[in-house]
């Protein structure tokens, strides 16, 4: 689980071009949207693609995204429970 | 009454250090590379990190060059923004197309798609400046920038706008550069030094950059030059160029002897050098001859760098030695003609005066 969280942080920083944010600056429970990392709706689409491409998870209900993408912690837990690759 | 068009502010990001400098005092000719890379400004001084993280190189360079031009002109906003680009944000276009192939047309992310459109630069500048006026991008090969310039000049002369920001932007993309090398458009590797004058090999030394200008309908303290005329012709034979220039000058009540300097687009391509060398050796032998693509490289909107250089010369009356083709000097540089073409196509004549 810790390795997955680290992997997610690296993917988010690289894929979303978060130039000013170091991986160690992201706490597991930091909000990804709003006051935390400040991600936006385009980033949400990028995260959905990461779930699909890298972990084989297709989000059928977009409303699920709100709880899944709350933080690295929630994202990792969801991936751990639902990954197909 | 028809208004006149003045260049009242300039900004340039190029393969030379053309920001935080007076003119070309820090310019260096790099004859060891066949593709020149941008000298980057501190983007963070101009663009918020949250906004810049999705921006392609060309967008960032365009925004900074536009900001420099607007500041130079002392204006807060403009009535319109018009850009020209040959290949647009080619890096992100490549990323997007590569992702389509690599992922078997699945998993396409929005970021590189958003940035891959040609009008992204003009749009992002408008968003940054909160300019809600006319916003247009010309994609016409090597006359993309001249098309933007002509559009702006016509709007100013017809009183449709008082101030217009125009610019030419292009960036290098790794895959496109590799294709250009394969096709011979860029000089082959390992043939350095790459001399642009008296070239003996085909292909050009390529580059990238963004040059922006604030055009206004009144002469101010910041004025660089007046844009007298622009003409674009798709195809010309070498032996037709001189007569076309004579007609172009005549339409502006000028003759070749009235031109103080001619700025030529020598790009090192021996196959098309005659377009310039014939003029240099004959009709304009007694005129100061200047070139610039050894500084900025060849690309579809490289001529915008040429206009930046010519504008600076008219304002400062300083002709940097590094730009000279011949040793002819003039007591003053009040009328400058720019001639550019790319691979024998897209010829343009631009006439500036003090």
Automatic annotation (TrEMBL), chain A:
Domain Carrier: 2-83
Membrane-spanning ranges: none
Protein name (database record): Acyl carrier protein
UniProt organism field: Flavobacterium hungaricum
From TrEMBL, chain B:
A Pfam family assignment: ketoacyl-synt
Superkingdom to which the source organism belongs: Bacteria
TM regions (residue ranges): none
Stored InterPro entries: Beta-ketoacyl_synthase, Ketoacyl_synth_N, Thiolase-like
Domain Beta-ketoacyl synthase-like N-terminal: residue ranges: 47-219
Keywords: Transferase
SUPFAM superfamilies linked to this entry: Thiolase-like
PANTHER family per the UniProt record, alphabetical: 3-OXOACYL-[ACYL-CARRIER-PROTEIN] SYNTHASE, MITOCHONDRIAL, POLYKETIDE SYNTHASE-RELATED
Protein name: 3-oxoacyl-ACP synthase
Organism: Flavobacterium hungaricum
Lineage: Bacteria, Pseudomonadati, Bacteroidota, Flavobacteriia, Flavobacteriales
């Amino acid at each position: 689980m810790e390795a997955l969280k680290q992997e997610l942080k690296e993917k988010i920083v690289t894929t979303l071009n978060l130039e000013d944010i170091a991986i160690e600056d992201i706490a597991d429970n930091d909000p990804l949207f709003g006051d935390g990392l400040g991600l936006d709706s385009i980033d949400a689409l990028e995260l959905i693609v990461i779930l699909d491409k890298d972990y084989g998870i297709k989000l059928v209900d977009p409303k699920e995204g709100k709880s899944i993408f709350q933080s690295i912690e929630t994202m990792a837990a969801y991936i751990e429970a639902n990954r197909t690759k | 009454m028809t208004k006149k068009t003045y260049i009242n502010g300039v900004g340039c990001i190029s393969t030379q250090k053309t920001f935080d400098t007076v003119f070309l005092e820090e310019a260096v000719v790099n004859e060891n590379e066949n593709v020149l890379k941008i000298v980057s400004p501190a983007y963070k001084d101009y663009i918020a990190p949250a906004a810049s993280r999705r921006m392609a190189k060309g967008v960032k360079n365009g925004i900074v060059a536009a900001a420099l031009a607007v500041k130079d002109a002392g204006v807060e906003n403009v009535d319109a923004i018009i850009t020209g680009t040959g290949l647009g944000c080619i890096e992100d276009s490549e990323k997007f197309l590569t992702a389509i192939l690599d992922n078997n047309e699945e998993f396409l992310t929005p970021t590189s798609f958003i940035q891959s459109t040609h009008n992204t630069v003009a749009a992002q500048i408008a968003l940054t400046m909160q300019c809600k006026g006319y916003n247009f991008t010309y994609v016409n090969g090597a006359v993309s920038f001249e098309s933007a310039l002509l559009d702006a000049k016509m709007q100013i002369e017809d009183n449709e706008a008082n101030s217009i920001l125009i610019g030419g932007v292009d960036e290098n993309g790794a895959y496109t550069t590799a294709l250009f090398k394969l096709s011979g458009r860029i000089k082959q590797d390992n043939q350095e030094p790459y001399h642009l004058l008296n070239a003996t090999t085909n292909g050009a030394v390529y580059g990238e950059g963004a040059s922006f200008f604030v055009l206004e309908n009144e002469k101010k303290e910041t004025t660089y030059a007046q844009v007298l005329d622009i003409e674009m012709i798709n195809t010309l034979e070498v032996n037709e160029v001189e007569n076309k220039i004579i007609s172009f000058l005549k339409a502006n009540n000028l003759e070749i002897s009235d031109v103080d300097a001619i700025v030529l687009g020598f790009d090192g391509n021996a196959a098309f050098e005659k377009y310039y060398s014939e003029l240099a050796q004959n009709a304009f032998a007694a005129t100061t001859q200047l070139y610039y693509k050894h500084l900025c490289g060849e690309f579809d909107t490289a001529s915008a760098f040429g206009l930046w250089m010519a504008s600076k010369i008219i304002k400062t009356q300083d002709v940097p030695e590094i730009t000279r083709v011949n040793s002819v000097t003039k007591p003053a540089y009040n009328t400058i003609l720019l001639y550019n073409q790319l691979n024998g196509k897209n010829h343009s004549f631009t006439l500036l005066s003090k």
